[in-house]
Design goal:
alpha/beta; five-stranded parallel beta sheet; about 50% helix
Length: about 210
Amino acid sequence: MNAPPRIRVFCVDDHPLMREGIATVIRNEPDMQLIAEASTGHDAIQGFREHRPDVTLMDIRMPDMGGIDALLAIRTEFTNARVIMLTTFEGDAEIQRALEAGAQGYMLKSMPRKQLVDMIRKVHAGQKHIPIEVAVHLMEHLGAETLSKREVEVLQKVAGGNRNSDIAALLFISEETVKGHIKHIMEKLGASDRTEAVAIGIRRGIIHL
């Protein structure tokens, strides 16, 4: 009796040690096969076209192109693509964006090997899977007001150390408009000042340094 075909896995991560660790895990599973690796978002898109993997493990943050943008590009071309996002960050905003982009799974890199292989099998079988640790972060902010695209831009500029006048010039808006955006940002995030707003934004994955 022939064995069922192995799950063909594609690993995308810009850290060689991470890719090596995942490769070791996959090779120890008799029902899985690592078919390709990539270290950038652009290579992920090209690699997916070339190999058509069953399941893709995608790092959420890469230097050239974020994993979520790569996921969107892949799923625009291949609507049935099954992708698990991997990250060291627990921000609820980033998790939400990944799921809205079509990720079938979301996993922290600190989680045990068994959870990774179990998730690959579940996603390959057509299931969506979010570990309880990740779901908790989503539930904490369920129903909370989200920042608008412009508010995210302003908060990112604040995180870069820019004054209101600098932000106004960079975004081609008035200084009064900047002040209004910052007021709304602080209200939505429950922050008492600009510094706390930035800290919350980074922790929740709304902005990145």
